[in-house]
Amino acid sequence: MLERLQKVLAAAGLGSRRKCEEWIAAGRVAVNGKTVTRLGVKVDPERDRISVDGRPVRVPPKNKKVYLMLHKPKGYLSSVSDPFGRKTVVDLVRDVGARVYPVGRLDADTEGLLLLTDDGDFAHLLTHPRYGVPKTYLATVRGVPHGSLLERLRRGIRLEDGVTAPAQVEYEDVDLERDEAVIRVTIREGRKRQVRRMFEAIGHPVERLVRVGIGPLRLGSLPVGRYRPLTEKEVDLLRAAARRTHKLHNSGDGS
């Protein structure tokens, strides 16, 4: 069965579909010994010989995909490896028996819910901007922001890379003695350090940031540094959430 080359590479657990497209365009991928640089090329993963940087690519059976939820600790990089030898989230799942990679990223200083998988299509659904799957965070900020400042975040606030999309923002807790507040924030974008920059823009820097939700999935009581497999129902719910959001976006209904 013929499939797009970038889809096959993603299915092999090498990275997201977008990352695999970048590799193809850069001339790092070969099919049957010939370098491919054009997107849209279709291959038969059971017959064609595919390699990346000269290394053969093995596509696992479709029914053997792995989906993990990790409670990422502070100080770990959301990557497969690091040239400087720093700790990565993959170090926490070495015993899973599969080559998984993070779905999207959390900053090294950010904690909480991170998904890892070897399913490129699944990762694509949850990370591509056109799907806009909501991510929910608890941000502990310095000081107690006035309600009018939170309203600016709800409407969208200008950052150096443009105005943010409207966010859902509400108080979770306020500690007047410590002069800090915990704010629950849900966004549908994935800009670099976006939540931290949003609060810096209103004068209340983030002191701690924990992602507690992706779409319908919640971190719950999973201990820091531990992981668990997603249930089949959870995987289906995440896929459905991505497709539903994409459909609403295309219909022009932003509610």
Automatic annotation (TrEMBL):
GO cellular component: cytosol
UniProt-listed Enzyme Commission number(s): 5.4.99.-
Residue ranges of every copy of the RNA-binding S4 domain listed in the record: 3-65
Keywords attached to this entry: Isomerase, RNA-binding
Superkingdom: Bacteria
GO biological process assignments: enzyme-directed rRNA pseudouridine synthesis
Pfam families: PseudoU_synth_2 (PF00849), S4 (PF01479)
SUPFAM superfamilies, sorted: Alpha-L RNA-binding motif, Pseudouridine synthase
Gene Ontology MF: a single term: RNA binding
Family listed: Belongs to the pseudouridine synthase RsuA family.
Record-given protein name: Pseudouridine synthase
Species assigned in the record: Candidatus Reconcilbacillus cellulovorans
